[in-house]
Structure formats: C-alpha cells, structure tokens
Design a protein that fits this description.
Blueprint: H1 24-45, H2 47-50, H3 54-73, H4 79-103
Helix pairs in contact: 1-4, 3-4
C-alpha cells in the first residue's frame, strides 16, 4: 500500500488584513508636524515662563518625544507617526537654539 504524499507545510504567517487609514507618508508628516508644534509652543511661546525650571524642560521635552516616538514605532498601525515624532527631535533642537539666540542678549 502506498500512501499519498504529505501535504506541503505552509510556514508563512497569515497575511494581515489590508489596513485602512492614513498612508505612511501622511503619518510621518502628522508626527513631524505635531512634534515641531510642541517644540515651538514650549521653546518659543513658553520661554518666558521657564524660569529656573528651564533645565528640567530641556531634558523633559526631548525625552517625552523620544519615548512617545519609540512607543508609536512599536505599534503596527502607528509606525509612521512614531518616525515623524523622532524626526521632529532634530527640528526641536534647531528651534531650541534659535530661541536661545533670540532671548539671550550679549
């Protein structure tokens, strides 16, 4: 008696359902825009309110953006948004140094 050949093994993971919502580029632009907006609000708009707590803000704002960006990168549908937030870190540094140059008179 001969047995039929075994069925081939399918090692591929099931394909995820097509995702709706924003495209990756729109997500990145949204994350970048939100991160830049946060930096402008804190560094330009809130400069006079920082006072002695300015050092805490210098550390806290990039750290919050870094944690939020990495968290969104770990969520499948939000990876583009997390990448945009991480890209906004560089713009935030530029905005910070621009605010420093505008507010410190020599």
């Amino acid at each position: 008696m001969s047995q039929p050949p075994p069925l081939p093994m399918n090692y591929q993971s099931p394909t995820p359902p097509p995702r709706g919502g924003w495209s990756l580029a729109v997500q990145q632009l949204a994350g970048l825009g939100l991160g830049i907006l946060l930096s402008v609000i804190v560094w330009v708009g809130g400069w006079k309110y920082l006072g002695n707590e300015g050092l805490n803000a210098i550390v806290a704002v990039p750290l919050i953006k870094l944690c939020a960006g990495v968290t969104f990168l770990c969520i499948r549908g939000w990876r583009g948004f997390g990448g945009g937030i991480l890209m906004s870190l560089a713009f935030g540094v530029l905005i910070f140094f621009g605010a420093c140059a505008a507010n410190f008179k020599v």
